[in-house]
Amino acid sequence: MQPQLDEAGQAGARKTPPRGATSKRRWGGGRRSAVAPYLFLLPFFAIYCAFLLYPTFSALWLSFQKAVALDTPSFIGLDNYVRLVQDERYLHALRNTTVYALASVFILSPLALAVALAIRSFLVPSVNLKSFYRISLFLPFVTSLVVIALMFSLVFNKDFGLLNSFFRSVGLPELNWLGSERLAMVSIVLVGIWTYLGVNSLYFLAGLQNIPHELNEAAAIDGANRRKTFLYVTLPLLRPTILFVVIQATIFSYQLFEIPFLLTNGGPSDATLFLSPYLYEVGFSQFDRGYAAAIGYSMAIISIFLTVIQLLLYRRFNR
Amino acid sequence: MKRKLTRRGFLKAGGGALAGAYALGLAGCGGSEQGGSSKNLEFWGFDEGRVDFARAAYKSKAFKSKHGDVKINFRILPYEQMHNKLLTALVSGEGAPDIADIEISRFSLFIKGDHVPLLGLKKRMGDDINDIYRPAAVDPWSWKGEIYGVGNELNTVVMAYRKDILESAGVKLPFETWDDVIAAGKKVSTGDRKMFAIHDLSFGDHYMLMQEAGTAYFDANGNYNGDDPRSIEAMQFLHDLVYKYKIAGIAPAAANNTWAPPQYMAAFRAERFIATWGPPWHLSYFIDQVPDQEGKWTVQELPEGLGDSRPTANYGGTGQAITEQSGNPQASWDLIKAANLTKEGVLFDFKARTAYPAYKPAYDDPALAEPSDYFGGAKIGQIYSDIADALPAFRQSPVWADTTLAIQRDVITPVMSDKTDAKTALTEMKGTVEDLQKNQ
Questions:
Q1: Fewer beta carbons within 10 angstroms: which end of chain A, N or C?
Q2: Domain range holding B285?
């Protein structure tokens, strides 16, 4: 059978009638034709402008104003940003958040890599068991952070908690997990590890599965043992994944809210005060809207800064 | 027959829907008229018991006889959310209810700045002001001579303790001085049991005892007064109960409830603590959550020996306020009056939640004179009304909430952890409060 030819005599080419004729038939006018796609896009952009762009720019403008409680806001330039660097509590919150971010990078990420390696390696031989581990590791990540915080408030409870009951049963001294200035941050980090270990190990697992088996086999033929194969083959090829996990963990750390807010409420004595709960306190307890907006923008700047680093490092490693 | 939706049809329908939504939005934004006589009112609260109290007032003769055609929608929101939403609605100028419950520690947010977005109630109250215990009923919701809210609870602080345990230890009751309390505490305290549970994450214990000593966090001019020697004495006393006399332990607490979470009440059930001090709402937790100890407790006024030795203090409460967006201020006020300034109204809350009224005429009612089964037959209503005249005035400040948070953080926790001394912490707090005042 002969292929159908168009007016230009080209087989399979789409029939394109003159532009005006088509528009008129389908839409009844050229101007409408030009407007129609935008009308379809309008709902999205309307929502985007109302709920994202407007609040973003409004908050930026607010951060340059003194806007406390119900008083009419007044322009004060960069005063709120100057106040940030003079505010001991803000700096304390920044320090706490950074400590948590470092723990995420140097404790959580290596642990996640170890778990991913364990799942992939001979330690978990059955395919079904691997799937089971993947699902169970992912569960904490999809569990509501509110539920996690409530659950761990029971685990860490000084008097009736699971952890201290265990300590008692093995003859160890009970610890004031959430009430001690030294231990409260450790407790928050432990909850963070429990929550995000699974999803981070899944990232690593995906990275590991992308490494061709042939490379490992070639290394083995060349006489490399498991340690050397890991150090000189697996790890270099995992660099983009490691970078992704590390930067993700850092950005998430600077946005952490629910766990410290619900587990310790920043206490005791600000030992677990993080940036997001501090923003909430300034915004809703002190109702200092201008300063809260400046705190929010400082967090945005930190996140943008970390994202830029991520992109630069990605480029470098992908060369 | 199925109709095919053409693009034109879709655009028409979409445009119509958008126009409709816009029109509805405009209608919705209309809200309640200013100072009008709207027949549909909105009440926001955060506690089911308190909203029931308002509902009872709505159904009362006192209200229905005046506003039989007015309907009130009662809405319960979580504590934080309700206060935050209320403030946001008042800032934006739209969407606030006609009447709202405002908790004592949140009221200070409404008086930050020059403009108070609540209606003044002083004129409306008239001579009724003489029938209430002012420090409990209106002082916490007053600012610069105007009254913005009315509460029904008489939150007089008393001491409560396990009479059975103390008597079996040979302790002479009631206590006359704090020295007697310390001596008794030494008799009954062991490694597993202490007399008191002192809060290290809440300012409440200090606030109550500093009032007994005769001072408050702010003076009459709104200046920080927490470094008053009597305040320091009260804080040092709390510290000493734990570390010097060893008759108190640190109260079990949770981040979302630093005052009386389940573990705190469980400790009392397990007899790890046998005494406490607090207002009626605090004691009601024992009636509800430690029922097995009914009849074993009793109450008395605060013992002498701290500062000016007042017999009581004032702690807690929630007031009903009318917002400036109210569509019917008169009906809103009549609801508040029916709830807080009538015998019928306040007795409803007494029967429902054991809330002792701040409305004086209610004390003629026999229900308030009945002995309490839980507190060993003590006539609590009589005790409360006897000491109510000694209630210290409530000194409000726009930074009251911020200050108490700062005191919790920088005074209570470090002192009760034995990391700093009371005098240093309370003196240094002055600078923090001045910064808060400067930034507000």
A1: N
A2: 158-313+393-439
